[in-house]
Structure formats: structure tokens, C-alpha cells
Design goal:
Layout (H helix, E strand, L loop, with lengths): L5 E6 L4 H12 L4 E7 L4 H11 L3 E3 L8 E2 L2 E3 L2 H4 L7 E4 L7 H9 L3 E4 L2 H18 L4 E2 L2 H10 L4 E2 L4 E2 L2 E8 L17 H4 L9 H9 L1 H14 L6 E5 L5 E7 L4 E5 L5 H9 L13 H4 L13 H12 L3 H17 L7 H12 L8 H27 L1
């Protein structure tokens, strides 16, 4: 039997997840072929990736569509996700930019490997409905959701947004981020550099700050609800400092499964890329005899107000989560630019949620308009604040 390499598209190829996905592909040259790469502003790295992997297609905001660039044809993100040569699309962009390409990939009946949290946070109902119409499950490559998916094996079937099996609840683990032990009265004085010093993981800047605020774990609760068709009261979160246990699944008979591995994103990425098979890897192995203690504890909700804001948006429903996502994106960017304090991130997000009036059953257009409206409003407030400071 002739084995054909799977065609893969990577959205966000110059980011942390995208680069690690390319590492996995490079380690399995007979399994995969890079069909398309998409990036943001880092054209130098994108050019090196194009030279190494020789994709047919490439996409970046500054590249004019319909030309060639370093030997690859330039396409829009949406068109890139519909090319016939690809079977799988890794969505590892950040923010709302991943939403329309994800929908395009599903409509083209391509398997989506999802690392972009905001896609399901903003539009989980609509995205999973598209996956059901296509009859294709979305494969999670976030470590926590991938771990839940692995724990389902043998007990549950994973459809497009619904599991069938005797699950009582799932438990997502959180490392606690860079400031998990810092006294609360010192949080207002932390710097972006300190926030980016994650104790366990190497990730992009946005998600690393979201780990420090625990907004990322709130996002993951919303994602889990849509990915697995669970109710929110079936999804719990615990503090787990070691980042060895990535998730647990409790079944109705009291049995609990856990997925353990090194905190290395290449492991869940490879699992999803090679699914339904498993392939050997050279990534660092978990030496269980050397771990020592594994600790679990409840979250200190006073330390992580962003987590409760995410749950509040989930409870409000409709476009509230889209407003949450956009507000967090702007707030984190301002913190990283030194414009606001770390403790002002939840304050800004809360202001947006308090003023937002959710649309109960939004369209994709409604969701994207809320995203842009929140960004415009926060931009206007910033401009007004700057003007007042100059008077």
C-alpha cells in the first residue's frame, strides 16, 4: 500500500505553537507535507520557513494576494484554508483572526487542529455547528483539552461538539502563572518581563500574560464546554504547580483518568497531527520515578479576578464572551506596552463587560462587529485619557 503524506496548513507558523508544529512535521518527513504557511509581521522567519519547507501557498497581511513570494503563491487566510491539497489545518493564531479561517477550513471538510482559544470563546456555538454539518470533530492541541480527549479514549466517543460516554466531570489544571506566590499587594507593581517568566511553559506573550491572570483558564472552561458538549458545572479547575497532569476525567462510577506528560507542546501537537495513530517521538520523556510530589489545590479566586470574569461572560451568553476576548486582548497589549498596571487588566475587562449588552443569538457578523466595537471604544478611551494627561 502506498502511503501518502498528509497535507498540512499552519496558521500562525512564526508563533510558538506554529514553530513547534513545524518541529513535529520535520521529525516525521514521511508523514506530513507542508502545503501552506501563514504569519503576521515576522516576514524574516516566514521566509526561512518557506525556504525550508517549500509550501505551495503562503499568507501574511503585508503580502499582496495573487502573487508569488519566495516561490509560494500568496493567498488570503480564508482562501488558504480551502486549498484542495491540504487535509489538516493547524489554527495557532491569536485572537479573532482565527475565526473566519477556521470556519472556511470546516466548510472545506478539513480537519482543524485548534490552538486558538478565542475561536471557541467568541463563537463556540456557531463553530461547532459548522463542525457538526461537516461531520468532522475539531482536534484540540491545547495541552489541557488534548489531555481530556486522550482520557476519553476507550470510554467515550468524541463527535463534533458532543461526547457520548459515562463522564461525570472533567478537571483542567492550572500552573498559576508567574505570580502564583507573589503577595497580593505587590501585583500592581509587577512588570511585563516578570509576567512573561512562566515557571513551566514557553509560550507566546499574550497567552503567557493570560496564564498570569488566569484568563487563559477561564477561556479554557468556555472551550471545553463547546468542544465536549459539557455543562459548565461539569468543568472544574485546580491549581497544579508542576504542569505534569494536564487534565483529569472523572467517570460516573468514581474512576478518574489523568493524562501526564512533560510540559512540552510538541506532545499534544503530534498526538493530534498523527491521530488516529500514535507515532514515536524524540521529545523529552516523563521520568515518573523522579517527579517526587504532585500537588493539587483550589484556586485562590482573589488572586485571579480574570477567571471569574470569564465565567461571568459564559453565564451571560451571546456576544458577552466576544466582548471579553477583545477587551482582554487590548488590556494585555496595553500592559505589555507599559501603559497600564497588571492589576488594571481585570479592571478594564470588567468595565467592558459591565457596559456590554449581549446579543443572545449572534451571527458571525455580529460577533466580529462586537470584537471591533470593543476595540474602537477602548481605543477612544485611551485617546481621551492621553489628551487629559497632556492638558
Amino acid at each position: 500500500m502506498v502511503h501518502l503524506a498528509r497535507g498540512v496548513i499552519i496558521l500562525g507558523s512564526t508563533g510558538s505553537i506554529g514553530q513547534q508544529a513545524l518541529e513535529v512535521i520535520r521529525a516525521h518527513p514521511d508523514e506530513f507535507r507542508v502545503i501552506g504557511l501563514a504569519a503576521g509581521k515576522n516576514l524574516d522567519l516566514l521566509a526561512r520557513q518557506v525556504s525550508l519547507y517549500r509550501p505551495l501557498y503562503v499568507s501574511a497581511p503585508v503580502l499582496p494576494v495573487g502573487t508569488t513570494w519566495n516561490g509560494a503563491q500568496t493567498l488570503s487566510l480564508v482562501d488558504l484554508c480551502q486549498v484542495p491539497e491540504a487535509e489538516r489545518v493547524v489554527v495557532s493564531t491569536v485572537g479573532a483572526t482565527g475565526l473566519l479561517p477556521t470556519l472556511a477550513a470546516l466548510r472545506s471538510r478539513k480537519t482543524v487542529l485548534l490552538a486558538n482559544k478565542e475561536v471557541l470563546v467568541m463563537a463556540g456555538d456557531l463553530v461547532m455547528a459548522e463542525a457538526r454539518r461537516a461531520g468532522i470533530p475539531i482536534l484540540p492541541i491545547d495541552s489541557e483539552h488534548n489531555a481530556v480527549w486522550q482520557c476519553f479514549a476507550g470510554d467515550c466517543s468524541l463527535g463534533a461538539g458532543a461526547i457520548e460516554g459515562p463522564v461525570r466531570r472533567i478537571v483542567l489544571t492550572a500552573s498559576g502563572g508567574a505570580f502564583r506566590d507573589l503577595p497580593l499587594d505587590q501585583l500592581s507593581r509587577v512588570t511585563p518581563q516578570q509576567a512573561l517568566a512562566h515557571p513551566n511553559w514557553v509560550m507566546g506573550q499574550k497567552v503567557t500574560v493570560d496564564c498570569a491572570t488566569l484568563m487563559n483558564k477561564g477561556f479554557e472552561v468556555l472551550e471545553a464546554r463547546w468542544l465536549f458538549g459539557l455543562s459548565y458545572d461539569q468543568i472544574d479547575v485546580v491549581l497544579h504547580r508542576e504542569s505534569i497532569v494536564h487534565a483529569l476525567v472523572e467517570f460516573v462510577d468514581g474512576s478518574v483518568k489523568a493524562e501526564l506528560s512533560q510540559p512540552d507542546m510538541r506532545i499534544p501537537i503530534q498526538h493530534a497531527l498523527t491521530y488516529p495513530e500514535r507515532r514515536p517521538s524524540a521529545w523529552p520523556r516523563l521520568a515518573i520515578e523522579q517527579i517526587g510530589q504532585l500537588s493539587f489545590a483550589p484556586l485562590d479566586r482573589r488572586r485571579y479576578p480574570c477567571f471569574d470574569l470569564a465565567l461571568a461572560a459564559a453565564a451571560a451568553g451571546g456576544t458577552a464572551a466576544a466582548a471579553l476576548s477583545a477587551a482582554d486582548d487590548v488590556a494585555v497589549a496595553r500592559f505589555l506596552n507599559g501603559e497600564i498596571a497588571f492589576t488594571q487588566i481585570p479592571e478594564l475587562v470588567d468595565q467592558v463587560l459591565q457596559s456590554h449588552r449581549p446579543i443572545a443569538h449572534p451571527t458571525i457578523e455580529d460577533i466580529l462587529e462586537v470584537d471591533q466595537q470593543v476595540r474602537r471604544e477602548l481605543g477612544a478611551r485611551q485617546t481621551q485619557g492621553t489628551r487629559r494627561a497632556q492638558v
